[in-house]
Amino acid sequence: MTASPELGTPRLGSADLLRSTFRRHAAGVAVITARGAAGPVGFTATSLTSVSADPPLLSFGIGTGASSWPAIAETEHVGVHILGEHQGELAGTFARSGADRFGAPTAWREGPEGVPVLDDVLAWLVCRIVGRVPAGDHRIVLAEVVLGDPSGTGRPLLYHQGRFNGLRD
């Protein structure tokens, strides 16, 4: 029988344990956008997940205390943008509370269904929200892909250990 490595001292489930664990999990970086009553809104998300191919569905999480939540709670469509490794500053802007997310230097345009579409991303989608599922202090948003463009070039931006990074070979 092979000896197993020391597991350390387990900790009880908590927000701190969850955050500490997921800092070790590298995740792709996306920006979710929507048209809000007072103008465009958006936030950085690392919780983007492909859910179904038929119909084409994805999901992402958003905190109910987030500044973008009121718009996401009411809108019918969202934009989903996959960021490239050259867009760490953009990811930081959309992650920072109180930032002017759509001011210079952010390059964007109004896209289909009035959704803000960011320029120079690896891929973007416009999706129709089909569900908002309560999950603690968050909502899991389910959205069906309506259209998009996956033709951007470059390598993906990753989030790991509290920082935005590129892939290493």
From TrEMBL:
<dbReference type="InterPro" id="IPR002563">
    <property type="entry name" value="Flavin_Rdtase-like_dom"/>
</dbReference>
<dbReference type="Pfam" id="PF01613">
    <property type="entry name" value="Flavin_Reduct"/>
</dbReference>
<dbReference type="InterPro" id="IPR050268">
    <property type="entry name" value="NADH-dep_flavin_reductase"/>
</dbReference>
<protein>
    <submittedName>
        <fullName>Flavin reductase</fullName>
    </submittedName>
</protein>
<dbReference type="GO" id="GO:0042602">
    <property type="term" value="F:riboflavin reductase (NADPH) activity"/>
</dbReference>
<dbReference type="GO" id="GO:0010181">
    <property type="term" value="F:FMN binding"/>
</dbReference>
<feature type="domain" description="Flavin reductase like">
    <location>
        <begin position="22"/>
        <end position="166"/>
    </location>
</feature>
<dbReference type="InterPro" id="IPR012349">
    <property type="entry name" value="Split_barrel_FMN-bd"/>
</dbReference>
<keyword id="KW-0560">Oxidoreductase</keyword>
<dbReference type="GO" id="GO:0006208">
    <property type="term" value="P:pyrimidine nucleobase catabolic process"/>
</dbReference>
